[in-house]
Design goal:
- With 196 residues, this protein is an alpha+beta fold.
- The protein has 2 domains: 2-80, Orthogonal Bundle (Arc Repressor Mutant, subunit A), CATH 1.10.10.10; 107-195, Trna Endonuclease, Chain: A, domain 1.
- The protein is 49% helix and 21% strand.
- It contains 7 helices and 10 strands.
- It has a 5-stranded mixed sheet with strand order 4-7-8-9-10, with helices on both faces. A 3-stranded antiparallel sheet has the order 1-3-2, sandwiched between helices.
- Helix 2 (27-33) crosses helix 3 and helix 6 (142-163) packs across helix 7 (176-189).
- The longest helix is centred in the C-terminal third of the chain and has 22 residues, at 142-163.
- The radius of gyration is 19 Å and the shape is elongated.
Length: 196
């Protein structure tokens, strides 16, 4: 019985840590990331955690989970008031995280400075010591995307000069039209890119 209790505690803490990392997540995302098994099992675990008030949820077209104040305290982090307007953007970022095989050093919104330029990618991570930058295109003005591509062109040169590789710019968009425009802009700018 004691061993089961410890296992349950560890699983809950693992889910709390992943929610701290993800900000918001759907049951399906938590299921994949934390290996919670089938739908019924995942639902039961998350329902218990919600009953224990260590996670909270809101309902949009589906249930979205996030850390409660109590859950934040349990894993020793400061509780942050979340912005509900960010939910669609965050869920897209989580989907891409899963699609890309859950990179180990996935870092959200880390500012990058080079020369007198500054950029905050949605995510930065490395594969075989090569930089990858993620931009989530959720209702972003295309003009803003084009400006970002210009900055990434400059950043790419700076990284090449220092680390001898060209970083990959990864876009995630839900629109075929925007996909085409991003592809065209990245190709024209000479940036190494990938679009999902």
């Amino acid at each position: 019985m004691m061993i089961q209790q410890v296992k349950k505690q560890q699983r809950h803490e693992q889910i709390l840590l992943s929610l701290d990392n993800l900000t918001y997540a759907t049951q399906q995302q938590l299921q994949v990331i934390n290996k919670l098994g089938g739908d019924r099992n995942a639902h039961r675990i998350l329902h218990d955690m919600e009953k224990d008030k260590i996670i909270s949820s809101i309902r949009t077209e589906r249930k979205i989970y996030f850390l409660s104040r109590q859950g934040s305290e349990q894993i020793g982090i400061d509780h942050i008031e979340l912005k509900k307007a960010e939910i669609p953007h965050v869920l897209m970022r989580n989907d891409l995280y899963i699609k890309l095989g859950m990179p180990a050093d996935w870092k959200k919104e880390q500012p990058i400075k080079w020369g007198d330029h500054r950029l905050i990618p949605d995510v930065t991570y490395r594969v075989n010591n090569e930089y990858h930058f993620v931009e989530i295109d959720y209702r972003q003005q295309m003009r803003t995307n084009y400006e970002k591509i210009e900055k990434y062109t400059s950043l790419s040169k700076a990284i090449f000069n220092t680390y001898k590789h060209h970083p990959t710019l990864i876009w995630y968009t839900l629109s075929d039209v925007r996909n085409g425009k991003l592809k065209e802009a990245c190709t024209k700018a000479g940036v190494k890119f990938s679009i999902y």
